[in-house]
Amino acid sequence: MLRPQELDEGERQRWRDLRAGSKAPRNPFMEPEFTDVVGRVRPRARVAVVYDAGEAAGFLPHERGPLGQGRAIGLGVSDCQGAVLRRGLAPDPRELLRACSLSSFAFDNLEAGQGLFVPAAADEHATYVIDVARGYAAYEEVLRARSPKFLKTTLAKERRLGRQVGDVRFVFDERDPAALRTLMGWKSAQYRRTGRRDRFAQEWITRLVARLAGTRAPECTGTLSVLWAGSRPVAAHFGLRSATVLACWFPAYDPDFARYSPGLVLHLRMAEAAAAEGVGLLDMGRGAAEYKDSLKTGELPVYEGAATRVGAGAALHWLGREPARRAHGFVRDRPRLASLAVRTLRGAARLRRS
Q1: What is the DSSP letter of 28?
Q2: Are 2 and 46 in contact (CB under 8 A)?
C-alpha cells in the first residue's frame, strides 16, 4: 500500500504497460499520472500494488475514508475508474478490499470490462463518444447522414460568428493560465445558473485542474482548447488527452454569445484537431445532454455502485449513499420528473441570485 508519490518509475512503467495491454480505450483518467496528481491534492489517496510471482501484476488507485470506506480515485470528477490488472489476473474482490483495509470501494464511472467490480454495480450508464478514428471528414459524413440540419446549422452559426464578432480561430492546446481561469469562471457561473453544485468552489478540484493543466505525459496530457472570435474567447474546454483518447471534462462558453452555439462549434473543432493528432476517440462522459446526442457517434457503458465486505464501514456506506442514489435514479428514469427537477433547480438558482 503506497501513496501515489511513493510509486517508483519501474512500478509506474509497469502500470502503463498493463494499460497498453488492455482491450479498453486508453482513457487518461486510468493512467498513473492522473492518480499522482490526485494524490498531491487529496492526502488520503493510496495505491494498492498487487504482486503475483514476485511481479507487480495490478494496481488499485483509491481514496480511503473513515472506517475504511474506500472510493475510486478522484470520485466525483474522474470519468473513468477501476483497477489496472494484468490480463487474466482475477483476485477475489473481498480479499483485495481486506488487504487494503477497506470496507467498501465506491465508484460512479467504472470502466466497462472491469470484471473485478462490475458484478457489484447497482446502475449502468451510457458515456457518449465521438469516433474520429477514420478522420474528421468521415465524422462529418456521419453527421450529415444522421442529422444534416444540425451540422448545416452549426457551421452556419460559426460563419455568422466570424462575420458579426470577429475572425474565428481555434487553439487546441492553449497554455495561457488566464484562459483556464476564464473557463473556470464560465463553468462556475453555469453551475450556479442551473442550480448545480459548483465544483470549482471546492479548492481541491481547482488545485487538481491547475496541476493537470501543466501535466505533459504521452498518455495523460492536460489540454485546454479555446475558440476565439476576434480578440475574445467565446468557448473553452479543459480535458485530458492520451495518444488515442480525448477525455472531455469541463466545457463552457460565454453566454453573451449563446445565439452562435459556440459550445457546439468548439466540439466540432476539437474533434477535427484531435483527429489530426491521431486521437481516435472523444469521450464526452456520462449524463444525458442535448449537445451530446447531436455530436455522438456511439455510447459505451460505465457503472455506478460499490463493492463491499461485511462490517460497519459497509453499512455506513449504504446509509450514506444508497438512498440518495436510488432517489436520483428514480427521477432520472422518469422524463417528466427529471424535467420538473431541472426546472426546480434553475428556479432555486434564480432565487439565490436575486
Answers
A1: G
A2: yes
Q: How far is CA 71 from the centre of its chain?
A: 16
Cell of 94: 473481498
Three-state secondary structure call for residue 13: helix
Look at 157 and 319; give whichever has higher pLDDT.
Answer: 157
Contact yes or no for 180/238 (Cβ under 8 A):
yes
Task: Give yes or no for a contact between 76 and 108, defined as CB atoms under 8 angstroms apart.
Answer: yes
pLDDT at 67: 83
Distance between CA atoms of residues 257 and 15, nearest Å? 44
Amino acid at 303: Y
Q: What is the pLDDT of residue 66?
A: 84
Cβ–Cβ under 8 Å, residues 80 and 109: yes
DSSP assignment of 246-271: EEEEEEEE-GGGGGG-HHHHHHHHHH
| pLDDT tens-place string over residues 180-218 | 999 999 999 999 999 999 999 999 999 999 999 999 999
Closest CA to 70 of 45, 95, 38: 45
* Closest alpha carbon to 246 in 216, 215, 210, 277: 277
pTM: 0.88
- What is the rounded CA–CA span in Å between residue 80 and residue 281? 14
The stretches of 283-334 forming alpha helices (DSSP H) are: 290-295, 312-332
Q: First and final CA of the chain: distance in angstroms? A: 50
Q: Are 130 and 96 in contact (CB under 8 A)?
A: no
What span, in angstroms and rounded, lies between the C-alpha atoms of 205 and 211?
10
Residues with Cβ < 8 Å from 332, sequence gap 6 or more?
Answer: 338
H or E stretch at 148? helix 148-164
For the chain, the farthest-separated pair of C-alpha atoms sits apart, in whole angstroms, at 66
Structural domains in the chain, CATH included, are 4-126+301-352 (3.40.630), 129-299 (3.40.630.30)
Q: Are strands 55-64 and 45-52 parallel, antiparallel or unpaired?
A: antiparallel
